[in-house]
Amino acid sequence: MEEQLKASAHVRVTSTGDAQRFVNDASNDLMEDLPIFEPTAANVSAFVGQTAYLPCRVRNLGDKVVSWMRSKDLHILTSGDFSFSSDARFGAQHTPGSDAWTLRLDNARKTDSGKYECQVNTEPKIMYAVQLSVRDPDKPEGYDEPHSQQTRISYESTAPVADIMGPREQRVPSGSTITLRCVILSPYQTRPIRGVQWLRDNKLLTFQAARGGINVETEKGAARTVSVLTLAAVTQDDVGNYSCRPTEGRSATVTLVVEEGERTEAMQRDAGYVSSGSDVRHWPGLLLPFSWFLILARNSQTFLL
Fold it and tell me: Which of 228, 258, 199, 220 is nearest to 50 (CA)?
């Protein structure tokens, strides 16, 4: 009887998209004792420079160990809570007592794209595959892969389009607060876009940066999304190209120029916004009557002689 139970316990591979789930086909009693993967995301996307989290949940782990392996070179990255990679960007993220064994990847690069396997050292070994895609932040999702010209035209004609209100070059005095309002129109969308990213010189803005004073408010709609970026107390460090980019669609960019206070005042004075009672431009009107007075006085003295 025991031999029959052992013979009936085997692992079946099923596919869900690009991922593979391994399910035990033994009796219910045996399944309760064996590790099994719970459904999690099989595809993960991240921008260059972001932190990527690859999920894996294992129920009934018992005394077994969860490891993460990179498929393209069969390199073991983590085993349990320990890292086995010389690349310090990789690490295991696990809370004691939890079923979650997450692979964390800091400062993601495009070369990190590929398949990663969450493995459990059962006999035979079981695994769950997660596909990671790392892309440039200035390229919309779905636009990275090669497209035919017809497909590209179709995409560009139906994709959401962003527009930042105001001139393409926005000049503000140093120390002031500037607000950039981005309107994203998506008439062909049946649901709101997933999100909006703000970038400075093609790098994602970090709201936890030491600078502070950065705020973004986004109001999503099915056909229209509005995202407002506010920068307080701008300095020369804030100069650059600011882009508003929907997760799906085309971005918009404006250039921010910060003018120093003295220079701004000088420009206003030259433009006539600042006047002074001692401005030499007022002198000619005063000198002309005085010149006539001197001429008349000299002529009067001649006549008297």
Answer: 199
In 3D, which of 269, 243, 263, 271 has the Cα closest to residue 174?
Answer: 263
Quick: pLDDT tens for 11-22: 334 333 343 444
Check pLDDT > 80 for residue 4: no
Query: Which residues, 6 or more positions from 193, have their beta carbon under 8 angstroms from its beta carbon?
Result: 160, 184, 186, 220, 225, 246, 247, 248, 249
Tokens at 274, concatenated = 């600042």
Tokens 């799906």 -> residue: 248
pTM for this structure?
0.41
Q: DSSP code of 287?
A: H
Reply yes or no: is the peptide bond before residue 124 cis, omega within 30 of 0: yes
Q: Classify 269 as helix, strand or coil.
A: helix
Phi, psi of 230 (to 5 degrees): -120, 130
Distance CA 98, CA 113 (A): 27
